[in-house]
Amino acid sequence: MDSIINIGIILTYVMVGVATLTTVLFGLKKMLSNTKNAKKTLYTIGGLILVCIISYISYILASGDVLSSYEKYDISSSQSKNVGMGLVMFYILAAGAITSVLFAELSKVFKK
User: Fold this and answer.
1) What phi, psi does 62 have (nearest 5°)?
2) Residue 97 in contact with residue 111, Cβ under 8 Å?
3) Where do the structural domains in the chain lie, given as residue ranges?
4) Between 16 and 58, whose confidence is greater?
5) What is the C-alpha separation between 27 and 16, in angstroms, rounded?
6) pLDDT tens across 18-49, in order?
7) E strand or H helix at 32, and its extent?
């Protein structure tokens, strides 16, 4: 019975890998066929990488101190720093999303 489960898990990994590879190749094909939209996509990916870098810098600069009240949950300093990095990334992306929605709506109002 274990060998059937192992074969199923391996087959699942292979199918996920093929699907991922197909998705990436199809995306690259579409980007190369339309270079104008490819620039916009690359700018967006670059912005996301910039947000990740800023969040990682906050991870490096964080103190790593864990409050004594959290010690009962076995939270290490690296886990605390990872949560902080995720929160910084969330705050930056949320602020960007809110700003872009407000800009889009306000630009419609002032154009009319």
Assistant:
1) -65, 150
2) no
3) 1-33, 35-111
4) 16
5) 16
6) 999 999 999 889 888 888 888 888 899 999 99
7) helix 2-33
Q: 55: closest CA among 83, 86, 78, 80?
A: 86
What are the φ/ψ torsions at residue 98 (nearest 5 degrees)?
Answer: -65, -45
Find out whether 81 and 59 touch, Cβ atoms under 8 Å.
yes
Q: Could you tell me the pTM of the whole model?
A: 0.68
- Residue 85 CB neighbours (<10 A): 19
Count of positions (residues) in the chain: 112
Residue matched to tokens 């009240």: 69
Enter the tokens of residue 41. Answer: 């996509």
Whether the CB-CB separation of 56 and 90 falls below 8 Å is answered with no
- Checking phi first, is residue 92 left (phi over 0); if not, alpha (psi -120 to 50) or beta? alpha
Contact call for residues 88 and 54 (beta carbons, < 8 A): yes
